[in-house]
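We treat protein structure as text, and this decision shapes the records that our systems exchange. The tokens are whole numbers drawn from a learned vocabulary of local backbone shapes. Below, we set out a record of this kind in full and without editing:
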Amino acid sequence: MSVVVVGTVAFDTVETPFGKRENILGGSATYFSTSASFFTDVSLVAVAGDDFPDEHITFLKSRSIDTSGLQRIPGATFRWEGKYGYDLNDAQTLDTRLNVLSEFRPDLPDSYRDAEYLFLANIDPDLQLEVLGQMRSPKLVACDTMNFWISSKIDALKEVLKRVDIAVINEAEARQFTSEPNLIKAASNIISLGCKRLVIKRGEYGALMVTPDSVFATPAYPLEDVFDPTGAGDTFAGGFMGYLANTGNSDEASVRQAIIFGSVMASFNVEDFSLDRMKRLDYREIERRYKLFKTLTHFEDIGAL
């Protein structure tokens, strides 16, 4: 089954302790769709300026990503510049230029509107609501957001959360949204707004999933080489949703497996700048790391005491 993602394509300038890259391919929809394409068919909805090179579109198409929902309009593509310290957990934003993104109004091709899986990447929650109004009867909808929307458009974001099945955010955003320092309590508060599951991305500390009836936690995959964490969260979401769309299941066991696959994909993404590691990746590496991931937390049951 296919998944539709609505988000951004961008040019990023990124500096980490291990180097600097200027005007490299980025954007939430770009990272998501590349990751998800290892598992299922993906249709991308975003906007780019007339400075967006054909080579990037060629790359997306090489991953069998449907780009007919990518709008090309006159102007400059969205740009972001950030810098990371040695802990690589938080980026210092140095510059953000919305450019054509400020004019973006998602218009889904008719063929996209029957998709069963939809991911609303980090865009204005009013636009996320517009997209939901264009879908006919999706089987599973998930969304992402960020601190800017939490502080500036909380009411619209709450409306989005009423209408999605899964929300994917990071731990700082969960605390900001609820003013609750305890992540479990914060997750419960967010779930009470209407979504069925909350997946909290915790960077190098892994991921946490909370439902009204369960809690599932997983570590991050231990890596020796981490070069650029930009897009890791979107890559996680792509692996997560791509796996669910591939299986057609969204029961507890499948969602837990999807979280591991999302974590696996994110672990590859951070091993190089932009999408360079993803361009070299093959599915055998993904399977191998998934199996290694399982050994990280496996332990035997105890006998009777």
